[in-house]
Amino acid sequence: GAVSADMHLNRWVTSTRNVSDDIKEETMTATAGTPTSTLFNGPKMITFDGDQTLYSDGANFDSNPRLANYLYLLLKHGVTVAVVTAAGYEYKTEKYELRLSGLLAYFSEKKLSPADCERFYLFGGECNYLLNLGSDYKLHAVKETGPGGWCTSTRYISEAPANWSDEDVKTLLDTAEASVRESMEDQHLRSRIIRKKRSVGLIPRPDSEIPREALDEAVLRVQAKLSSMNGGKGPPLPFCAFNGGRDVWVDAGNKRVGVHILQSYLGIPI
Fold this sequence. Notes:
Radius of gyration: 19 Å
Strand order of the largest sheet: 1-2-3-4-5-6
Largest sheet: 6 strands, mixed
Order of helices and strands: EEHEHHHEEEHHEEHHEEH
Strand content: 15-25%
């Protein structure tokens, strides 16, 4: 029978924790609601992480017909499918398309209908850049502001990006950058720092690797530093600090906020 709209299968991903290699981060969130197809009595929306979920860490979704077919069938049965990923390239759509090249090619090969394409989303930078699949099988930026804009329509969510000030984002990233730089210098790491609009990364130099223990140390340091801001209250906006396997990243926002925004924007019961 139909799944009640009161039932929810929420496993929120707030941040990546430092765990052993054989324990993978569970990054699928399923939100149950009234099914849109009489043939499918499952969730109304399913979200996935990219790295270590849809594809190997640091790799792309190249060729995986079996997994691509599962996602294709979900879309065909009225389910909204979203990739909520830390990868943040602002709205440079071609970079996200490269990461999902095999999946998008599969949708094109199967001639996924325009209506079904519209149910596929990608949230980049945890919760900062929302894109939607078009009938041309390419990703397109979703309007942020104005009538129908995703930022405008989710402003009522206190942790949503629409409520972050540029100064608060800068303070968060400045603090994070200072912490990872301290880790780099104290541990004599052959690495460099990357500063993006909504994130800071510590990555290895060419032909070098950062030991896992050093990555863990950097993450724990930056988490402690950010949590101690404002007299121990933490920063005024959500964040995510994680060991990416070969690097460390600190993002403004997190996947929990991203999924909440998607549910609100698409009208899916929480």
